[in-house]
Amino acid sequence: MITVDSAISRFRRSVVLGAVLRFGLLGGAILCIVGGSLLDWQGDEMIPLLIIGFVWMFLSYQSMVGTRLASDSPSLIAAGDFEQAETRIDRVLRSFSLFRTAKLLSIHHLALLRHAQRRWQDSARLCQAILAQRNIQILSRSTLLMMADSMLQMNDLRGAYGALNQLYRQRLNLGEALALQLLQLDYGWRIGAWEPMLAGVAVKVQMAELMPSVNAARSQAFLALAASKTGRNDLARWLSARAALLADPQEITADHPELKPLFDGNGKI
After folding, report:
1. Quick check: 198 pLDDT over 80?
2. CA-CA distance, 229 to 195, in Å (whole number)?
3. pLDDT tens digit string along 121-168?
4. How open is the CA angle 62-63-65, to the nearest 5 degrees?
5. If we measure between CA atoms, which residue out of 234, 205, 200 comes closest to residue 221?
6. Is the Cα dihedral 185, 191, 193, 194 positive or negative?
7. So where are the chain's domains?
8. Shortest CA distance to 182 belongs to which of 156, 207, 161, 157?
9. Residue 149 phi/psi, 5° resolution?
10. Which of 111, 113, 131 lies closest to 123, judged by CA?
């Protein structure tokens, strides 16, 4: 099993080594071109330039293979084949890559794997390692969502708030906005922010309808809990009944026992 410390260490070492090699090869190519023109090497600079070009293409090919290998991991995780996914990720982390894309993907997929395995602390630490990198716009939002959820599962409200606060300042696509709403509701009940949870409740219910069934049910159950806490019992009953139609109450409350009082054995209030 890949440990978090070793994965982060390999990731950082590979990123630094790749950057050094890129700058070294580019610097060598510039030196050959400038030196050839200034010192009148009469074409002798072509040999080292060809060698540098060959090395660059070979290492780029190796990086492309690593990126392709890393791209299969999410489907394996989604299928529940955690062992095979971990093997793939380990191979990518151990391989060399001239560019950091393959390494970023592999460490992100490892965080996704640990999240699926419910190893929240490992997932959060891996997410933090990714977010410490610069210019990762493609991965930053999904990484922040995963870190916020991991922090909530650990009941680290300060860490979850920090991740959610960063997400508020970013432009999200529809899937990310739906994931953020569920996280906001999960965070809201933990701090007792019942009124803010119910703000724009009609829109939140409409957005919940676009989620997968369990998430949709859980979102409406959170809203029902907030309605119950603020004395809006009719709204609480209506939302709970909608939630019970979408998923089994036992599944809704599996990770959230605080929602159990909303349901009886038949999924009703």
Report:
1. yes
2. 9
3. 999 999 999 999 887 777 899 999 999 999 999 999 999 999 999 999
4. 65
5. 205
6. positive
7. 1-128, 172-269
8. 207
9. -65, -40
10. 111
Q: Phi and psi at residue 172, in whole multiples of 5°?
A: -105, 150
Per-residue pLDDT band at 64 (split at 50, 70, 90): confident
Reduced to 3 states (helix: H, G, I; strand: E, B; else coil), residue 190 is helix
CA dihedral 81, 71, 105, 70 (to 10 degrees): 70
**Is residue 259 within 8 Å of 225, Cβ to Cβ?**
yes
Query: The tokens of 114 are what?
Result: 């640990």
3-state secondary structure of 133: coil
Q: Which token pair is 107?
A: 């460490």
Runs of H (alpha helix) within the chain: 4-39, 46-70, 73-78, 82-94, 101-116, 120-131, 137-153, 157-168, 174-191, 194-198, 201-208, 213-229, 233-246, 249-252
Find how far residue 127's CA is from the centre of its chain.
7
What is the dihedral sign for C-alpha 218, 222, 228, 234?
negative
pTM: 0.83
